[in-house]
Design a protein that fits this description.
5-stranded parallel beta sheet; alpha/beta; 5 strands; Rossmann fold; homodimer
Chain lengths: 192, 192
């Protein structure tokens, strides 16, 4: 099996983005993550920070609008989803790459030779890691993780109808906390 | 991290047992699967075939008894669980090994250095495989798979309170259908 594209979904703080970058570097192929945000920003006219929140961590408003009884056309989140969908499809057609987040696994499910990866770790590992990487915040690391997990799962479920973190949705899932980031990179590389 | 014990949970027909045996052989350590059934049979006085059904694929009766309003002591399934629990704990203490099925991942969660693996594959791959390995039956392969999946998940949930197939319960989950059995063996071996 030739996997032209590697998609990495990940729990916040699990190191999935770091793993994605390391895999891409080792394989000599591009990794899209922040770059995706920039492209979506350029195409949509929205600010990157807005897209980061609206696009990945489903805001209350977006989910609320979906269940609203008031008739309404597509909202900002739907508009961004559309742009994101097209962009990811185009990138996958362009050549081999790693794509982190943004429901790429779902978007490419019928369109590309995909190795679909999910990275997770337990709360203690991730709590330590987000403080190391992103620094302290007013909310405790555990609170921040619970909030991000909830929003990411809700966004994913809303647009893909797939259960977040269900083994059956992926080719491989890895616990970066027990296996270590290096082992994760090695395994993904070996499957490409 | 030194993983002394490898536990393999698997969807029926995914090749998890075959993978477990190959990993054990490559590492030169024992693999417990049928052997576990034989030991439980010897200790309990029940026939192996009964244990296979009662112990792994929760029979309606067992689940029904759990929700029954009639006061009752432990039933056969609880009695077998007790024996299985002790046996798996003892085996893990004895030395490195691979244990296939029987909720070993849950039983050893606090007791051993465990590499917890889950093997799955899509319906088409498993349907083809169970016909190749176990032959035709009156029920269609898809019906057989749906039935086994349901029973295995119910048994696992009943005794462990963990969600079957949830990535977060494992160190690594692998899709044997897309990756191939050999790649699964190689990855598990490399993590030991």
């Amino acid at each position: 099996m030739k996997n032209r594209v590697i998609t990495i979904s990940r729990e916040f703080g699990s190191g999935g983005r770091t793993i994605g970058r390391a895999v891409a570097e080792a394989l000599g192929i591009p990794c899209y993550d922040h770059e995706l945000l920039q492209e979506i920003a350029a195409k949509s006219g929205f600010a990157e920070a807005y897209i980061r929140d609206a696009g990945e961590y489903a805001p209350g408003g977006m989910i609320a609008s979906a269940f609203s009884h008031q008739p309404s056309g597509p909202n900002n989140a739907d508009y961004l989803w559309e742009i994101q969908y097209k962009l990811i499809t185009e990138l996958a057609e362009k050549g081999p790459c790693v794509i982190v987040g943004r429901c790429a696994d779902y978007i490419l499910r019928d369109k590309a030779d995909c190795l679909r990866v999910f990275i997770h770790a337990d709360m203690a590992f991730r709590a330590k890691r987000i403080v190391d990487v992103y620094g302290e915040r007013e909310a405790s690391p555990e609170q921040r993780l619970r909030d991000k997990d909830k929003r990411r799962a809700a966004y994913h479920r809303f647009y893909t109808d797939m259960k977040w973190g269900h083994a059956q949705n992926y080719d491989v899932t890895l616990n970066s906390g027990t296996l270590g980031l290096d082992a994760c990179v090695r395994i993904i590389k070996s499957l490409y």
